[in-house]
Protein: TolC family protein
Organism: Aerophobetes bacterium
Amino acid sequence: MMSTRNRILIVSAVLMTTISLCAGFAQSPGNEDFPGEVQEENYLQQMIELVVEANPTLQSQRSLIMEIETVPEPVKGLDFTLGLKTGAALESDDGWERRVEPTGSLELTIPLYSSAKKRKIALENLTTQKDLTKARQDYYQLKNSVISDLLSRVDKLISLKNELDGQKNLLSLLQYNLDALKKQVEAGIASPSDLWSISERVMATETKIATLLSSIDINKREAAVNLTGTRWPELMEMLDQITTQV
């Protein structure tokens, strides 16, 4: 159901276009022709950017990606082994004096080719790359899910606001009819019992309006806290702008 504001915008746009054509300088409508819609779209884009930046789940996933990206690559050094051998030998000098002397040696083994080492490095690199790819895929899925959640919540708030506007219009009409009926009763044209039915509708509509106002406030706060964590006041302010512009 088209709101009154939208009807006014459409009628105004048609009139402006007609006048421009008659004057011979008709132009395509730009952003300045519909400031309300442009401002609403700007708020929506700002909300998406805020949610993507401040959402705790997305922040955690971005931190995970950064941790994986900063993992050092496996060291591609030489695959060598170092061994130590010790023992003893019988020594004698020119005087035929014999004695036992300790002996020792270091052995360094450097293979020309180590397939096991290269395979290990390749597997470690592959595992890191797989982890990084998976983390990025999870991030984009989470990001799309969070944005979809935001848009659904905004759509619900707009629906509630439209319903609230309808109830306010109904209340205004009922109060007008009630005032008119009171005058008819005072003039003896209508029966006092006729006031009861319309008075009941007025009270029911007022209750409905109060319920809708409470529901809008609860939904805004829930969306702000769940989607932006500690920065919920910023999103709350933007949601206020959306619900007051509908």
Remarks:
- Strands lie at 81-92, 98-109.
- DSSP finds six helices and two strands in the chain.
- Helices lie at 4-23, 35-54, 56-69, 115-186, 194-228, 232-245.
